[in-house]
Write a structure and sequence with these properties.
The chain is mostly beta strands and 101 residues long. It has one domain: Rieske Iron-sulfur Protein, CATH 2.102.10.10. 0% of the residues lie in helices and 49% in strands. It has no helices and eleven strands. A four-stranded antiparallel sheet has the order 2-3-4-9, with no helix packed on it. Strands 5-6-7-8 form a four-stranded antiparallel sheet, with no helix packed on it. The chain is globular, with a radius of gyration of 12 Å. The chain starts with a strand and ends with a strand. Bound molecules: FE2/S2 (inorganic) cluster (FES). FE2/S2 (inorganic) cluster binds next to loops.
């Protein structure tokens, strides 16, 4: 059953236009800030396991730093490939950033 879990504090979010890796328990997430729109997705690229949170944001997509596959920050879909990364619903409550995991 999925529930909202605290991912980080608002102050821990990357600046606009950037992404970062955030560890929650034993999981690592890619947290991206696309012009103030926050996305939380799995950090592991489905191609060869690259760290998406170390990637760059371009046109609403996170670009994997290893081989440049691009994943939509809202849907997790890869372009133009048939692959997908799980993206989690985000909620901001006060100073806490939550994601529905
Ligand atoms: S590991 Fe991400 S594109 Fe290859």
């Amino acid at each position: 059953m999925s529930e909202f879990v605290r991912i980080c504090g608002r102050a821990d979010l990357p600046p606009a236009g950037e992404a970062r890796e955030i560890t929650v328990g034993e999981r690592i997430f890619c947290v991206a800030n696309d012009g103030g729109s926050i996305s939380v997705m799995d950090n592991v690229c489905p191609h060869r396991g690259g760290p998406l949170g170390q990637g760059m944001i371009e046109d609403g997509k996170i670009i994997c730093p290893w081989h440049a596959w691009a994943f939509d920050l809202k849907t997790g879909e890869a372009h133009p490939l048939a692959s997908k990364v799980p993206v989690y619903e985000v909620r901001i409550e006060g100073e806490d950033v939550l994601a529905k995991l």
